[in-house]
Amino acid sequence: MVEYLDSLTSGVGQDLVEQVVVITDRVSGRLMGIRPDMTPQAARIDAHALNESRTTRLCYCGSVLRAMPTSGDSSRSPVQLGAEIFGNTHISADIEIVRLALDTVRLFTDEPLMIDCGHAGALKSILGSHTQALQSQVLDALARKDLEAMSKLERTVPEIAVLKNAYGDLDTVFSFCESEKILREACSEVGAVREGLEAENVSWYCDFGETHGYSYHTGLVFGIYSLKRDQLLVRGGRYDYVGESFGRARAATGFSADLKTLVRLAN
């Protein structure tokens, strides 16, 4: 649970680095951190301990500690459980992960659920050529759905205009975005996931301006919500190249949830 800080933060996004609770090793004087997320450790296991070229499936469950809650009602010390698929670039892996996440939630509740999809790859293709400072301004405006701020930023980043109407009911978003070249691939991938899960009794929402995990995710991102409680239960998505800093870049997709939150659903 505790590692040297340089090892713990290797290859992770800035948002995760900021969640690390830092302590000092009294023997060596080196900075250490308490893990805020188990996904990087799973990636290291895939890269070093297993070192397989074929598709690998891993699951985990353990305690983590975060400097700040990730949402208003979330715990800083969740018991994180999750699953990851390494080595499969195909959309079928994303479908498998979303289905497994749904099955996991349904072990605890039969409440109506909603899947909220986004696409970090599409967002990066829109913002990637701009400065970090400008990206931060746009991401902040998107996270707050501040249309006034978005309109001002359009003068410098005209490409973001497409994101102002790129959230809502999935079919409504598709009808608007499928004609937009920059979002066409994202629409195709999200559509493939819905088609792969068409037998599931869930509601669908889409937000191509979803900013969570922007520095970490590379493709499809999703959340699973309880409609009864208006509560986020699961987060997940694709994060290809995560093993690059460990010397072995691999395609990856996965999800995580707080076991404490899921257990409360059953009570």
UniProtKB/TrEMBL annotation:
**Superkingdom:** Bacteria
Could you tell me which Gene3D superfamilies the record lists for this protein? Answer: Bira Bifunctional Protein, Domain 2 (3.30.930.10)
GO CC terms in record = cytoplasm
Report what the protein is called: Class II Histidinyl-tRNA synthetase (HisRS)-like catalytic core domain-containing protein
Identify the InterPro entries for this entry. aa-tRNA-synth_II/BPL/LPL, HisRS-like_core, HisRS/HisZ
Q: Which Pfam families match?
A: tRNA-synt_His
Q: Which GO terms describe its biological process?
A: histidyl-tRNA aminoacylation
Q: Identify the residues that the record assigns to the Class II Histidinyl-tRNA synthetase (HisRS)-like catalytic core domain, covering every copy.
A: 1-262
**Any one GO molecular function term:** histidine-tRNA ligase activity
